[in-house]
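Shape is hard to put into words, and the shape of a protein is harder than most. The fold becomes a row of whole numbers, each drawn from a learned catalogue of backbone shapes. The outcome of that step, for a single protein, is printed below.
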Amino acid sequence: MASPKRAIRIGDVHYDIEVSKIPYLLSFANFQANSQPQSTELVHGPIPLFNVVLKGIESGYRQCFRSMPPDLAQHRTLCETYEFLQVDILGGQAITEIFNDLKSGKTDYTPEDKYSRPVRGRKSEARDTAFKLVYLILLGEFKDENKDSTKVFNAVLFVVSHSGIFKWRTRTVVRAAYEERFVVSPKQRARLDQWKKESDADRTVDNDGDVTTEKEESDYYDSDDWVWD
């Protein structure tokens, strides 16, 4: 059962928000209820990109890519706003779990039966996870940055190489985040550039929709493509 929504004004915009999903605003609402019990509407100053923040919380983090241009600075601001609002984007996940969820977007087959019908990938989950990957890269901490950078690269390469799952804006931001956080070797850059021509070709038709297509079947990326050093 959903929690009741609260009327709140953020800057000049009025919202009805389920504040239990945003810990900072829940604390703010509780404080205001105690200090101003007669007030019927909460009032808070402007919060950067709050409209995008809310869309991500209510409809899935993939909406963040759709709601903004593929500008890394804006996505960093968005991630910092989520952090300020104490929204637990990662949910305790590390890069290994995130990579597994990214791969859940692929169509799969039952290994015991080569004639089995394909199992549709969970594209929406994979697309939400792509934002988690960006958040982890930009604001996350790694136990061993040198070792983990290889794991992160493999996740980034998976996103970049699967245009049937992840659309142009998503792929562009994911790659840009990696290149800002980590030192990219010539070998890694060459691997990413293999997919740049396709990325540039479909940028004009990118609507990052949830329409299920078979395009990812033609994308080539498997464990033999992973970089281990």
User: Anything to note?
Assistant: Residues 208-225 have pLDDT under 50 and may be disordered. The beta strands are 6-10, 13-17, 42-44. The first strand starts at residue 6 and ends at 10. The two ends are 48 Å apart (CA to CA).
